[in-house]
Structure formats: C-alpha cells, structure tokens
Amino acid sequence: MVESGPVDRAQLIAFDRIAREGSFSRAALAIGIGQPAISARIHALEAAVGGALFTRGRRIALTPMGEGFLPAARRALQVLDEGLETARLAQSGRRGRVRLGVLGSLAGGLAGAALADFVRARPDVECMARSGAHEVLVEMLLDGIVEIAIVTWPAPEGRAAGLVPLLLFREPVVLVVHPRHPLAARKAVSREELVRKARPLFRLRWWPSHHPEVLRLTQAAGTPVDVMMEAARQMVLDRVGAGFFTRTYIAEDLAAGRLQEIRVRKMAPLHRDSALVRLGRTVPLSPAGLQLVDLMRAHAQRLGLSPSRPARRRP
C-alpha cells in the first residue's frame, strides 16, 4: 500500500504527460525516465488524491476523478512554472521588487532621478518608494515596509536597530532668500545682519536635532518660526523670511534664479551627513536592489554629495 504524501511537481508532470500521450511508456520516454519510475509517481499521486486517476488495461484512459483533477493539475504546473521563471528573473535582476524610503529633502533631486533610470532599465521590477522624516524611515525599516532607506547619519538608533550603511553622503546646507529680499543685495552678511534682517529666520531641522549654530541664530532672531521644509521653501519663494536649506532640496530654485544663496561671514560651512542604510539582519539585497544602490551612487556623484562606501570593519 502506498502511503499518502504531499503532491510534487514531478508527479503532476507525469500525470499531465500520460493524459496527453495515452500511454505510460510513451510518457516515460518523453520525460526521460523509466516506466517503473513514472508508475511510482502516479501511484503516489493517486494515494495523495484518494483514488485512481487512470483506468489500466489495453487502453489507458482518465477516470472521472482524473478528468476532474486534470485542469487543476495543469493550472498548478502553470503557476509553478511562472513562479520559477519569476524567481530566475529576480535572481538576474530583471524581475522582483525594490522598496525604498528616503528623506523628503532628497526624494526629488536624488531618489527621483535614480528611480527614473532604474525603471527605464528594469520596467518589470516592481518599485515602491516612500518619503518621510528620519524617525519615520527608521520605523519603516524595522517594520519591513522598506528594505533600504536614506536617513540622517550617524543615526542615534543605528546601534539598537542594527542599521548598516551602504552609501554615505555629505550635502552642503546653505542660507537662501528671495532675490528681492533685503539681504539679497549683498553676497555675504554678518550674523548680526542676518538676525536683524531675515524677518524671520526659519528654524529648520535637517539633522536628527537642530544644528547648534542654526539654533543660536534663530533664537537670537526673536520670535521662532518653526515650520516644515516644504512650507519654509514656499514662504521664501513668496519673499517672506530666510532659511538654511540643504542644497539638493533647493538646487532647481537656485539654478532658475528663484532663490539666492547668501554667505554668512565668519561662519563655518554647514553640511548634513546622510546614508543609504539597511538592516544588518536581513537577507542580502537582490540584484535589482544592488543596481538601485549603484544608480543612487552615480546620481549622488553628479549632485556633488560626495558619495562613498563605508569602510569595512575589521573582524
């Protein structure tokens, strides 16, 4: 007596081929196995489904159970074949899925441009991208919503969350105003002039916490105006106030002359460090994911973000 067991692909292939050929021997020859082997597969399949699939004798024919089971068996084989092909394509990077999280300030200039090239090169790979604040992106990584994310770096949560950097970026932070703002008449201003004439000086947070120098200046400016970066950019475009922005976020506005960069005398250049990271405990990135990382690096290089790969830790 053959014990009931799980149905496998080899059994379904044997069943389908016998139904097509009308013969165990011809089916065995077509598959490339011996007749005892194909008979064993059918016995195991019949034990699993609970009845005979073929009538044996001078002529092989499907039983009513076999006729009912055949369409399902062929659909199962089709699904399995499609799954195998999808897995092979994913392994080569031609199929699969990539899930990216990115700081809002880098979503357009860096991530958007890299994703455009990626989608053109791999149109069959499913893409998902989400933007948000640093803390939100870390949560997305921990929850498995995204597999890689650009966050501020070094991240306070880095050790606890096991974040592993894939690429490091360094981005200038610059003071900008509207070209008709009173400060725009001069290419460089003192701290005192900035505090007095910004009206207001926006308190923007580009780092995990407010940068000490920017915090001192905004506190000296009087009534704080602490707004989100999208609102601050629009207010500056509307000739209201001044603010320190990451250059990538307002690069198009600077190039088009909609905003103007102002240097603050005797003030060290500001920058923001960020990194493309993933969780260290997850499985290796797919070929598609690795290609997206390479495209991020190439676009960051064009944007002047000084992309670099983190040094490997010594064992």
Level-1 CATH class name of the largest domain: Alpha Beta
Percent strand? 15-25%
**Any idea how many domains?**
3
The CATH H-level homologous superfamily of the largest domain: Periplasmic binding protein-like II
> What's the architecture of the largest domain, going by CATH?
3-Layer(aba) Sandwich
Low-confidence stretches: none
CATH topology of the largest domain: D-Maltodextrin-Binding Protein, domain 2
> How many individual helices?
12
Termini separation comes to 57 Å
Morphology call:
rod-shaped
Helix content: 40-55%
Major beta-sheet overview: 8 strands, mixed
Give helix and strand order, one letter per element, not per position: HHHEEHEHEHEHEEHHHEHEEH
Rg calculated over all Cα atoms? 31 Å
Instruction: Give the overall average pLDDT.
Output: 88
Summarize the structure.
The protein is of the alpha/beta class.
